[in-house]
Amino acid sequence: MPTAGIAETMPQSESCELERPKPFNFFIFGASGDLAKRKIIPALYQLSVLSLLPEDFLVIGAARSDISTEAFRDKMRQAVMEAAGHSAFDKGKWEHLANKLYYIPMQYDSPQAYTSLAKRCMPLEKQYKTCQNRIFYLAVPPTAFEDVITNLGEAGLASPASAGNEKGYTHIVIEKPFGRDLRSASNLNGVLNKYFAENQIYRMDHYLAKETVQNILMFRFANSVFEPVWNNRFIDHVQITAAETIGIEHRGGYYEESGVLRDMFQNHLLHLLALTAMEPPQAFSTEKVRDERVKAIGSIKPLNPECLAGFLSLGQYGPGNGTPGYRQEPDVQPYSNTPTYAALKLEVENWRWNGVPFYLRSGKKLASRKGEIAVHFKPVPHLMFMGSQMGRIEPNAIVLRIQPGEGLEMLIQAKHPGSRICLSPVKLDYTYPEEAAPKDYSRVLLDCMQGDQMLFVRTSEVDASWELLTPVIEQAESQKWDFPNYHPGSEGPAGAAALLSRNGHQWDPL
Ligand SMILES: NC(=O)c1ccc[n+]([C@@H]2O[C@H](COP(=O)([O-])OP(=O)(O)OC[C@H]3O[C@@H](n4cnc5c(N)ncnc54)[C@H](OP(=O)(O)O)[C@@H]3O)[C@@H](O)[C@H]2O)c1
């Protein structure tokens, strides 16, 4: 299919430039772990490269491992070099960060550890003039969240007005998964709300910070041509995909507890659906945008767990292509019932979307790495070109590409060059330029430093998504599935294709 590159990005106005945050002290609990090494420190480094870190700041890594600050800096330097690429590594920008990077060993479950952490930090905070602004990033396993939150609170470190912290702000960042069902998420919110106000709590979903995801709202609400057709009169169905080629890597223990529905659907995929389906907010402000996201998730028709086959298909990858199946991965049970793939059919019950299926799918070890929202339009009402060509005309589609190659494409029909009246599909394609802009993790960290919660998830949003999915997950877990049921490198299990074909639809190829 021919592709037409159409977009030219206009120069950005000065008001688009991001501002440097005020000085801060950034604590990472679980600093010895995978997330700190692969995402958090590389994200801080990217902010340093983009000159988006203030002159004065401090980063304190804390974890149980007994290592020195020097060893921690060395390990993080290696991680940043791997993430940035050795040739692109900017030694000066790294040192701007590394000189302010410290490591303090501690036990998360010891209340005294937090008072002594605070005592040890105070002289550093004075030295680095962090203005009593503190961010606590919880990069620990979810089983340790409650200990860290409670001990921070009991040590008087949660409140912006706590001792030694009279003037600054205190923010807390919680990684996903936020609970494993409605009850555990409500409990976790209960613990958080005991010590922190909602405007201090930053629940992470880094998908929301990807350029294309943020662009969904601009695309829909800043262009008058799309919004009039963004409804059930013109849209036939929507497909939301988050496919990966990799397996569970070294995270078998985590994945066995989680599975794909908790790992991808409760957070990323439902948020993508919310942004696609939500009503225009009255203003582009944090609470108004979050209100509409919550309303969209709350408008999804409740799922009947007694009839899973009507809306859900699950899968688990087997061995193949010289790689182990899920059940052969380290820390996975030999007869594991955990799904590594799911396809889910949802309906949004309101005037705009009644009758339009939203198909969501996500899985590991699939044919390609792909994250996208594909909006498929209805066919034209009358085809006057019948007889002038073979086959049927493919209806229009708009694809918002999240990864790889963030951008958007529109499928239209155009006359095929030549004397005969022949139509052929053409793809209009806009790929975001690889600009020096903060990537997803850098962007959310920057927003947290600036106090902007729009890209973070509110309590009501967490509740709405768990309310929808908890009964389904519980029912699915109580059933025995015929796993493994898809090959690595494939399109997923046959049941996922059947889920769509019942409605006369088919998945876009991965
Ligand atoms: N890694 C990712 O790509 C990713 C992506 C999204 C979300 N997350 C979330 O981010 C958080 C951190 O992920 P991670 O992959 O960095 O985890 P991790 O490497 O398994 O753990 C982080 C650190 O926590 C400590 N830890 C490990 N097990 C513990 C336990 N049972 N009790 C208390 N502390 C323990 C360890 O440090 P010490 O032994 O030195 O204390 C470890 O270095 C998790 O909540 C995870 O779900 C991770």
Describe the protein's topology.
Blueprint: E1 3-5, E2 24-29, H1 34-49, E3 57-63, H2 69-84, H3 91-98, E4 101-105, H4 111-127, E5 134-138, H5 145-154, E6 170-174, H6 182-195, E7 201-203, H7 211-221, E8 235-243, H8 252-277, H9 286-298, E9 312-315, E10 341-347, E11 357-363, E12 370-377, E13 397-403, E14 407-415, E15 423-431, H10 440-450, H11 459-478, H12 494-501
Parallel strand pairs: 1-15, 2-3, 2-5, 3-4, 5-6, 6-7, 8-11
Antiparallel strand pairs: 8-12, 9-10, 10-11, 12-13, 13-14, 14-15
The structure holds NADP nicotinamide-adenine-dinucleotide phosphate.
NADP nicotinamide-adenine-dinucleotide phosphate binds at residues 30, 32-35, 63-65, 108, 139-144, 175-177.
CATH class of the largest domain: Alpha Beta
Strand content: 15-25%
Specify the overall morphology.
globular
> What would CATH call the homologous superfamily of the largest domain?
Dihydrodipicolinate Reductase, domain 2
Describe the strand arrangement of the main beta sheet, using strand numbers: 1-15-14-13-12-8-11-10-9
What's the mean pLDDT score? 91
The rounded Rg comes to 24 Å
What ions, cofactors and ligands are bound?
A: NADP nicotinamide-adenine-dinucleotide phosphate
Helix/strand order: EEHEHHEHEHEHEHEHHEEEEEEEHHH
What is the helical fraction, as a range of percent? 25-40%
Number of helices: 12
Total strand count, please? 15
Number of self-contained structural domains: 2
Give the oligomeric state of the chains in this entry, treating copies of one chain as homo and distinct chains as hetero.
single chain
CATH topology of the largest domain: Dihydrodipicolinate Reductase, domain 2
| Main sheet specs | 9 strands, mixed
Distance from N terminus to C terminus (CA atoms, Å) equals 16 Å
Based on helices, strands and strand pairing, what is the structural class?
alpha/beta
Unreliable stretches: none
